[in-house]
């Protein structure tokens, strides 16, 4: 399927910030020109073929010549990948593979990558398919590899700085629940869980709320994810927690265009907190 891109993208690619978001069953290509209001666009492609993931990525790249242009910034976003946080004081680049294996076990075929979250004194370790990493490195001009969660942590931290009380952020994506707790910008706790049932989401949320000794009358909980699912979850959680709401975004997000409203939180956060 051909990607419908803005007419100016190829002519003025150096002004555009674009992203390839790699998902288990496909990818999305999105971007915008910071100089032009309403310029955000996104194209999503799902794959049902029996071809390998690498073959699907290669076919997508070869079908769209504009991907070889030089952009202001080109992010390769790894979505739905396992990750772990390592204290910055303990991190050594040469030990990245070993640290990742300590959490997820050894594996012969994976490319371990990392990002520094300096404001939290943490390093985020994650992995992607080595052949896909190599192909993107060869095929793109100066790609910036990021994990889907890295910009979200930065965005959540910034939002919590202005809040007088502790805040829990909860993000739902496909079958994954991510939770992070902050106190005026300080990360208190974070973890993610594979969830298949609604009651599992409620269990993890309320268990961590109690574990972190949050106050049901004062502290805050913000939700993000698919609209109908988060709406139902909000209704359920308000029976236990007084201040539950949908996560909103600064006004500059809405000025980027209506298309951004159907994008996942990590792409919105990436547009606000460029890494």
Automatic annotation (TrEMBL):
The source organism is Parabacteroides faecalis
Which Pfam families would you find in this protein's record?
DUF3822
Protein name as catalogued: DUF3822 family protein
Superkingdom of this protein's organism: Bacteria
InterPro entries in the cross-refs: DUF3822 (IPR024213)
High-level lineage: Bacteria, Pseudomonadati, Bacteroidota, Bacteroidia, Bacteroidales
């Amino acid at each position: 399927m051909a990607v419908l891109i803005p007419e100016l993208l190829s002519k003025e690619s150096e002004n555009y910030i674009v992203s390839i978001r790699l998902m288990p069953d496909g990818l999305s290509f999105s971007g915008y020109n910071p100089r032009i209001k309403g310029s955000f666009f996104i194209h999503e492609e799902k794959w049902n073929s029996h071809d390998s993931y690498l073959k699907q990525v290669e076919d997508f790249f070869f079908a769209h010549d504009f991907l070889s242009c030089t952009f202001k910034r080109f992010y390769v976003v790894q979505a739905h990948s396992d990750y772990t946080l390592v204290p910055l004081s303990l991190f050594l680049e040469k030990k990245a593979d070993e640290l990742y294996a300590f959490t997820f076990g050894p594996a012969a075929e994976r490319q371990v990558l990392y990002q520094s979250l300096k404001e939290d004194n943490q390093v985020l370790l994650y992995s992607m398919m080595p052949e896909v990493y190599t192909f993107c490195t060869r095929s793109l001009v100066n790609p910036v590899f990021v994990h889907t969660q890295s910009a979200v942590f930065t965005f959540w931290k910034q939002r919590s700085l202005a809040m007088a009380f502790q805040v829990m952020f909860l993000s739902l994506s496909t079958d994954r629940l991510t939770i992070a707790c902050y106190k005026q910008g300080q990360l208190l706790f974070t973890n993610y869980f594979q969830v298949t049932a609604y009651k599992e989401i409620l269990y993890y949320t309320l268990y961590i709320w109690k574990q972190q000794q949050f106050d049901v009358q004062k502290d805050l909980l913000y939700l993000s994810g698919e609209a109908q699912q988060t709406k139902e979850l909000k209704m359920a959680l308000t029976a236990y927690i007084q201040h539950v709401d949908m996560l909103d975004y600064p006004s500059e997000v809405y000025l980027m265009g209506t298309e951004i409203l159907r994008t996942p939180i990590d792409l919105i956060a990436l547009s606000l907190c460029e890494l």
